[in-house]
Amino acid sequence: AMDGAPPPTSPTGLSAYVAVSQLLGLTLLATTGAWLGRYRGGVAWHSPLQFNAHPLCMVLGMVFLQGDALLVYRVFRHEAKRSTKALHALLHGLALAIALVGIIAVFESHRTKGIPDMYSLHSWCGMATFVLYLLQWFLGCGFFLFPGASFSLRGWYKPQHIFFGIALFILSIASCLLGITEMLLFKISDSYSHFVPEGILANTLGVLLVAFGLVVGYVLTREEWKRPPLAEELALSMDFKTLTEGESPGGGS
Fold first, then answer.
1. Angle 189-193-199 (CA atoms, 0-180°, nearest 5)?
2. H/E run at residue 98
3. 17-227, which class in CATH?
4. Does the reported pTM lie above 0.90?
5. Where is the chain membrane-spanning (predicted)?
6. pLDDT score at 252
7. What is the model's pLDDT at position 2?
8. Cα 134 to the chain's mean position, in Å?
9. Are 215 and 248 in contact (CB under 8 A)?
10. Closest Cα to residue 67, out of 229, 230, 208?
11. Looking at residue 246, what is its pLDDT?
12. Fewer beta carbons within 10 angstroms: which end of the chain, N or C?
């Protein structure tokens, strides 16, 4: 930017929607903690409460952190693209690591209690989402974060990456909703239909998950809120294109 130029600002409404998304995200984490703490005995690793680490980790990793990773390009609009990419990949990687802890927790809990694995719709959808999310992360790092992929190959893959990023976020929320329902039917099937407090709290968590997904999705799909390329990024992009397509960058200059 030129000296004396006004600092860049965010588009009207973007900051408000991002703030709402974070408020919803923190609220759904608090609601998850309240549910597990008040009605399910809390969370502990080497104990009968190990299973409870599963819903907490999946909500934190596969929903909240994944949603924030998707918002990085809207929030950090005027920072260097390389730094924004690194933060995007880091948040996704952290989400994967936390989700992996949640998956380990449920498998170990099932083994300890003699419960069979991978028979429910929730487990099928959840595992498929995690595996695809891991694949998406590796491909994203390979195409965009590390050098090697040509400009045309990056251009071809970028729409696929964007689509699957949003699709996996939706699938993550859907898997959580299936998991909440499954857990309620296992734990309070006899009283769930009587509007008991635990059922109401868990249903509220489900509504918060949907609300968080809707707000994040709205921010991501507003065309005018997309991150504009900086002038130096356009120049670097053209140089990268000529280099990877076998031409002489800048006419040999």
1. 75
2. helix 81-113
3. mainly alpha
4. no
5. 12-36, 56-76, 88-107, 127-149, 161-180, 200-220
6. 41
7. 45
8. 11
9. no
10. 208
11. 53
12. C
The CA distance from 125 to 196, in Å, is 28
Q: How far is CA 212 from CA 23, 38, 159, 206, in A?
A: 9, 23, 23, 10
The CA-atom distances, in angstroms, between 151 and each of 56, 141, 228, 242 are 40, 15, 19, 8
| Cβ-defined contacts of 214-221 (< 8 Å, 24+) | 215/17, 215/20, 215/21, 215/24, 216/21, 216/67, 216/70, 216/71, 216/169, 217/166, 217/169, 217/170, 218/17, 219/14, 219/17, 219/18, 219/21, 219/71, 219/74, 220/70, 220/71, 220/74, 220/166
Look-up: residue for tokens 């970028």?
158
Give the model's pLDDT for residue 250. 45
Give the burial string for 119-153 (b: 16+ CB within 10 Å, else e).
eeebbebbeebbeebeebbeebeebbeeeebebee
Report how far residue 110's alpha carbon sits from residue 107's, in angstroms, rounded to the nearest whole number: 5
Mean pLDDT per 10-residue segment, the chain (253 residues): 56 95 98 98 95 98 98 93 94 98 98 96 98 97 83 90 97 98 96 98 98 98 88 52 50 39
Output the pLDDT for position 56: 98
Distance CA 105, CA 241 (A): 46
* Count of residues making up the chain: 253
92, containing H or E segment: helix 81-113
